[in-house]
Structures are given as C-alpha cells and as structure tokens.
Amino acid sequence: MAHGLLKGKRGIISGALNDMSIAWKVAELAHAEGASFVLTNAPVAMRMGEINKLAEATGSTVIGADATNDADLEKLFAEATAKLGGPVDFLLHSIGMSPNVRKGRTYEDLNYEWYKQTLDVSAMSLHRMLQAANKADALAPGGSVVALSYIAAQRVFPDYGDMADAKALLESIGRGWGYRLGKAKGIRVNTVSQSPTMTTAGSGIKGFDGFFGFAQEMSPLGNAPATECARFCIALFSDYTRFITMQNLFHDGGFSSTGVTPSIMAKFMTAE
User: Does the predicted TM-score (pTM) go above 0.90?
Assistant: First the structure.
C-alpha cells in the first residue's frame, strides 16, 4: 500500500538491469510513492537488461551513462534536471562489477588492471556522480543519496574478492561527500549494507548459494529480500529520515550483530 512518501520528489535511479535488481524494486516503489525519476545505466548494461520495460511501467525516462565517464555523467545530470524540471531530491547508486570475480581470479592473484576497473565502477563512480551533480547544482537542498554496499567492507568473505575493497572505498566516499553536502545543502548520504540477495550480480559470485543459506540461518529475521531493501531505500529518500547521514546502515535481518546460532552450532557438535 502506497503512502505518498515521495509525492512531488524527483530522482535518478541507477543500476536497474532486470526485475531481480534491487534498483528495479526501488524504481517500482518510488513510482508507487509518487516520485518522478530518470533511470540510468551503462550502455552495455542497458543492452543486456530490460530497463525500457521498467521505464514504460513507471512513466520514466532512460538516459544512458557510463558512471566511469565524467562527460557522460555531466550529460546525465544536465538532461535529467531538464527532463524532471529541476534538481533531484534523491539519487540511488546501485552499481558494482568486478572483472576479477567474474573471471575467477582469486584475491591472491588479481589482475591489477581489472582491479582498477573494480574500484572505478563499484566505488569511484559514486564520487564521480556526486562531483558531477555538485558542480551542476543538480541536487536539491535536503535531498538524499543512497549507495548499496555489503558487509564484506568490514569482514572477510574470501570469495567476494576485490569487491570487498571496493565496498570499503564506497562507504568512505559516502562519508566524505555526506559531510560536505550536509554542510552545504543539508543533503544526506548513506550506504545500505544489504543481505546476500538473489540478484543477477549476486548470484554470479562463487559459492553464493551456500553463503545465502548460511546468512539465512545466522540472521534472526532471515535474509532481507530485495523488495524490503527497496522499502528501506524509499524511507531514506523520504522526509522521515532528514537527520540520518554519513551512516552505513545494515539491512540484513540481524546478521551483522549475530555471533552464532544453535542451528549453525549443531552442524559442528558431536553427539553425546
């Protein structure tokens, strides 16, 4: 049931590939809550995905942009603000990719050119976005920026590889810009550390099925589904969270605060 939480607000949502994407769910809910927005993704991702179907369903416009290309981002914010009729009230960064992980390179044997791509696509892109938006005065006072992260930024998950480094950088960038944009225009910037989620990107990580099950048993509330993550993002975009900024917020069913559970212990206990 919609509540009009984003009625009259304008935004940009990046990273919607298909209906498994968290960004896709965010767009559907933002539309239901009364927002108008632009969808964006890299041209290669747009060819692979179904973003035009989402645009049709939500009455939104698609503007292609490579988030590692400054000229593309300048064009994105210029066209988005013109199309929407003013600066944006919310921005979702839902971008991540590691060539090393995709091609099976372990953390002990990284291809450093690919490593640079991982950091640029998955983390520096947030800095690039906010720098372009700030220079263009494309973010409305009191607005909200959310970037999707993962607990591997704080803890070791070996198969997550160099993406863990990227998420740590992403969260640092969120704090850096959160301070500056907060002081200048009351804009808040937060990262959301989501449960392992059955998205196209997530399910491509080696051993993902096993870890998904492990996290499910470790989390008192279970893994948070993509739709619930989208609800949380909508709350962060809304005026109900005006004083939350520079935070990494765990949306993981309690996984990040749980040390051990009886069901996990039972797997290692010997019968008496």
Answer: yes
Give me the CATH number covering residue 26: 3.40.50.720
Residue at 271 is within a domain:
no
18 within some domain: yes
Tell me: the pLDDT tens digits for 98-108?
999 999 999 99
Look at residue 85 and tell me whether its pLDDT is greater than 80. yes
Q: Is residue 108 assigned to a domain?
A: yes
Domain that holds residue 221: 10-266
* CB crowding 121-144: b at 16 or more within 10 Å, else e: bbbbbbbbbbebbbebebbbeebb
Question: Each residue of 190-247: pLDDT tens digit?
Answer: 999 999 987 766 655 666 778 888 899 999 999 999 999 999 999 999 999 999 999 9
**Average pLDDT of 67-86?**
98
Q: Once rounded to an integer, what is the mean pLDDT over residues 62-73?
A: 97
> Mind telling me the catalytic residues?
150, 160
Domain count, the chain: 1
Question: Is 193 a domain residue?
Answer: yes
